[in-house]
Amino acid sequence: MIRLNNITKYYENKFIKTYVLRNINLEINEGEFVSVMGPSGAGKSTLLYIIGMLDTASEGEYYFYDEPVHKMKEKKLAELHKSHIGFVFQQYHLIDELTVYENLETPLLYQKIKSSERKGMVADILDRFNIVAKKDLFPNQLSGGQQQLVAIARAIIAKPKLILADEPTGNLHSDQGKEIMELLKKLNEDGTTIIQVTHSKENAEYGNRIIKLNDGWLDK
Prior knowledge:
With 220 residues, the protein is of the alpha/beta class. The chain contains seven helices and ten strands. It has one domain: 3-Layer(aba) Sandwich (Rossmann fold), CATH 3.40.50.
């Protein structure tokens, strides 16, 4: 599903290159649940953003379902991202001015799904996540755990092939965090490929493979 060949990321400033990722070679198969670990500044989030097509590598090749992502123009990247990838952030990234219902509907609007179909999809996901009673509330009226539930519901509503989660329980207390991790595990068991970045060994062990990054290098 995902193949990275010698992916390198650096920033240039007056002839000085600051490396974030160095020569990353990685393959991830469909249906895996991969945890990426490493200290702060190791390059974990950058790797996730490159896989999620929200950032581009400075060097190297990235194949997604054998398509050469590294050769794609921005428009094609955006289309691929929208149709195949769901993102879950530590900060939730819900839109404050929209209700829960409207937040969930947003990715479907991007995909130009018809109104009647959208209504059905939003109703299904509200039901699945037991948040029907919250549909008319705004994000600031929800607890952190509820906001993250909505963020995950939004990430999966368009049935992406891949979910990328960047410290998905970072702002939650342990019970809420466990609930979110169990939910990700269930999504994976239902066939969704998941890559998560985490500092937590406990959360990492929900995955079936742990990858370690250190100073931009992949630990062998």
